[in-house]
């Protein structure tokens, strides 16, 4: 008599082995973009690379874990953030990492599960406000001076009204310089990424002159992978990524991975 349960298990095991042993050329290839100005500790360039900069970080490690031994072969490219989003929307790139949400992004992309949270914050020089600045609403900062942010960054989750005038500059690494030149009295940043940026740019002395406050009446901000609705692999990307993030979170490994990259950034000389 045929033992159908045993036979089914053997067939299933054999199929899994075949899938995992598929040669590279048999796998579907997907491209995922990250921001080329760096968004540490989530994606940043390997300073140990002497030839061509290679993106490393929390994002890169999670992608490796999510797509390892699957039918998807992935490639990570660094692009200007606006171009990254545009090419994902058009389908030229399959997905973008480390994105916060707004109404437009929820409409235009397939959204992954959140895979980390950041703290919306505002910063100023201690010497400019020796008594400190604490406000009940972020918009009250304009009573004390100009507020800077990064062009094309999403600040919808900072609690600002749509008509708030934010002075825009190109890169987060330029923001501290704007304070010393008094072009801005405040700047907006996510606490965890600012710490990484200052470390990469060797601005420890400057960091000691800053005061940071969490923005009032806001919650930790979730970040996602944005997946192109025009990608032929969109459902597979989302399923593999979300499943791996959920497992890593339940195993307590997401926080360990984040702390690993924060430690690496602190070791940059």
UniProtKB/TrEMBL annotation:
Q: Which residues form the Solute-binding protein family 3/N-terminal domain?
A: 29-265
Keyword entries, A-Z: Signal
Q: Which domain of life is it from?
A: Bacteria
List the Pfam families hit by this protein, alphabetically: SBP_bac_3 (PF00497)
Q: Does the keyword Signal apply?
A: yes
Query: Would the keyword Transport turn up in this protein's UniProt record?
Result: no
SUPFAM superfamilies (UniProt xref): Periplasmic binding protein-like II (SSF53850)
Which SMART domains does the record associate with it? PBPb
**Annotated InterPro entries:** Solute-binding_3/MltF_N
In the record, the note on similarity to other proteins reads: Belongs to the bacterial solute-binding protein 3 family.
The protein, known as = Amino acid ABC transporter substrate-binding protein
Organism of provenance? Shewanella marisflavi
